[in-house]
Design goal:
alpha/beta, six-stranded mixed β-sheet, Methyltransferase FkbM domain-containing protein, FkbM_mtfrase, two-stranded parallel ribbon, 10 strands, Rossmann fold, disordered C terminus, about 190 residues, METTL24
Length: about 190
């Protein structure tokens, strides 16, 4: 079981150094609410297919609806190898995509448990490999995310912790409902 004190470090740093709201999703630890700007959810968040197969799972859209938020500043998420099908369902105009993501990415088959059908439907390859990892990050780049940090997870030799920031997105401007795709603030 992961070290809960390790879990708190990230959230506490963000809460102490910013005014952001932080939503943490992790079905592997017993977390707690750290402040009025933080919420912890012991949820398994996955693809629509996973949510349909297993009632313990919810989709990102279901989570956002339950949370009642329209804007997520920082999403810290550890979904134990469901990150591929989960983020694979995100589209440029998906509702409430976070501004920043902190995610543990599992990059070896030994850690990709019981979701081969989900992975196949998004990446269309028979065996998971480095190409799929590249396609995963390309998909996130197409959604406007860039990697700003990567750390090896000392407790999981085939996992890395990534922080991504959404630097480009479709944003409404003007009173006519027009949408501009470009850098934030452009």
């Amino acid at each position: 079981m992961p070290n809960v004190q390790m879990y708190d470090r990230f959230e506490e740093a963000i809460l102490n150094e910013t005014r952001c709201k932080v939503a943490t999703l992790d079905c592997t630890v017993e977390g707690k609410k750290l402040s009025d700007r933080h919420s912890f959810h012991k949820l398994c968040v996955g693809s629509a297919a996973a949510a349909q197969r297993d009632p313990a799972f919810v989709t990102y859209s279901q989570f956002i609806s339950a949370l009642g938020e329209h804007k997520i500043d920082i999403l810290k998420i550890d979904v134990e190898s469901f990150e591929f099908p989960l983020f694979g369902e995100w589209r440029e105009h998906s509702r409430s995509l976070p501004e920043q993501i902190a995610v543990e990415v599992h990059w070896h088959e030994a850690y990709l448990r019981n979701f081969e059908a989900d992975l196949q439907s998004h990446w269309g390859r028979g065996e998971f490999g480095v190409t799929d990892l590249a396609l995963f990050f390309l998909h996130l780049a197409n959604l406007g995310y860039g990697i700003v940090s990567q750390e090896i997870n000392e407790f999981c030799p085939s996992c890395s912790e990534f922080t991504l920031v959404r630097v480009e997105a479709s944003v409404p401007y003007g009173g006519n409902g027009a949408v501009h795709t470009g850098w934030h603030g452009a």
